[in-house]
Design a protein that fits this description.
Elements lengths: L2 H5 L3 H13 L2 H8 L3 H15 L4 E4 L2 E4 L1 H32 L1 E6 L1 H6 L1 H11 L4 E6 L2 H10 L4 E5 L7 E15 L14 H6 L3 E3 L4 H10 L10 E3 L2 H9 L5 E4 H10 L3 E3 L7 E9 L6 H16 L9 H11 L1
Parallel strand pairs: 3-4, 3-5, 7-8
Antiparallel strand pairs: 1-2, 5-11, 6-9, 6-10, 6-11
Helix pairs in contact: 2-3, 2-5, 3-4, 7-13
Pfam families: HTH_1, LysR_substrate
Protein name: Transcriptional regulator
GO molecular function, one term: DNA-binding transcription factor activity
């Protein structure tokens, strides 16, 4: 503790002194502030000991400021005024912070999870203005680190360097093809080596989808040169539906197409394509205001929701293959 802080009374003591000077009585000042008279008297005496001067002249008719008390009260008024200005300024900053939320999210999270989360946030904080940007996971991390987003959401196997994070949802990559593609009618599962040797249509490097697939196939020779690299989930689904090429995407992204039969999910043997979806923020900081509330909502949703597994049962695929022969 510095010498200055050891001598300067607390704000509550200065406010009490100003009330005594204004009202002419420790008792009346104590009642106004909401403490007992003995507690107020003890606070004044403690302040006098700290400052090393007498502040009040006491008599049966009340208390009046001593010469030193008058001077200290004048300075105390300036300190209280400055403290009130500080409190008002911090309050304005807090209101501005709590009135907006800047979110940047990977495509999968932004398109398939974020709408529900933001609707829940709107119900909880109807006055919050939310800005949502989309980027691949690498760019999300860059924006959060640069301070241009309050909260980010990434896909991938780890939390990016310089950030803290928490898992908010589980996801899995699936291989999808058109119903007319040869893989849609085969009896057995595609092997990891076969998938690695096949030219696919893929997300661009830097995306969480590509990172997970690259890691999963690294032991099998790595991903072959892709037919297409696209930053659009919609464009990749269109490429798969065209029948020309298999595509690897989040099961969240293809659930509707697989359910309606526009795409077929192809099982891959002995290949772990699961991945966590994370909320991230700068290391050493804690989400505050609406960012904290959104994070809480994602955790609540994770406890209550379970997304659809789009992988067909092997018996269903075998039966379909038998019918097609």
């Amino acid at each position: 503790m510095s010498t200055l802080s050891a001598r300067v009374p607390e704000l509550a003591a200065l406010e009490l002194l100003l009330a005594v000077v204004r009202l002419g009585s420790v008792g009346r000042a104590a009642a106004e502030i909401g403490v007992t008279q003995p507690a107020a008297s003890a606070r004044i005496r403690s302040m006098e000991r700290r400052l090393g001067v007498a502040l009040l002249e006491r008599s049966p008719r009340g208390s009046r400021p001593a010469e030193a008390g008058t001077l200290v009260a004048g300075w105390a008024a300036q300190v209280i005024e400055a403290a009130q200005a500080l409190d008002a300024g911090v309050g304005a900053l807090r209101e501005r912070r709590d009135g907006r939320l800047r979110v940047v999210a990977s495509l999968t999270v932004a398109e398939y999870l974020m709408p529900g989360w933001l609707l829940a946030l709107h119900r909880a904080r109807p006055g919050t203005a939310v800005t949502l940007r989309t980027a691949n996971s690498s760019a999300v991390a860059e924006q959060v680190l640069a301070g241009t987003a309050d909260l980010g959401f990434v896909e991938g196997t780890h939390t990016p360097a310089g950030l803290s994070g928490t898992v908010v949802a589980a996801d899995r990559l699936v291989v999808v093809v058109s119903p007319g593609h040869p893989w849609a009618r085969r009896r057995g599962e595609v092997t990891p080596g076969e998938l690695a040797a096949t030219s696919l249509a893929l997300r661009e490097r830097g995306s969480g989808t590509r990172e997970v697939l690259d890691r999963a196939l690294a032991a099998f020779g790595g991903v072959s040169a892709p037919v297409l690299e696209l930053a659009s989930t919609t464009a990749l689904k269109a490429a798969a539906a065209s029948g020309a090429v298999p595509v690897v995407l989040s099961e969240l992204a293809v659930a509707d197409e697989v359910t309606t039969g526009r795409l077929v999910a192809v099982p891959v043997a002995d290949l772990d394509l699961r991945r966590p979806l994370r909320a991230v923020w700068p290391l050493g900081q804690r989400p505050a205001g609406p960012a904290r509330d959104l994070l809480s909502l994602t955790r609540r949703a994770r406890r209550t929701d379970a997304h659809t597994d789009v992988r067909p049962a092997r018996s269903d695929r075998a039966g379909r293959a038998e019918r097609d022969r």
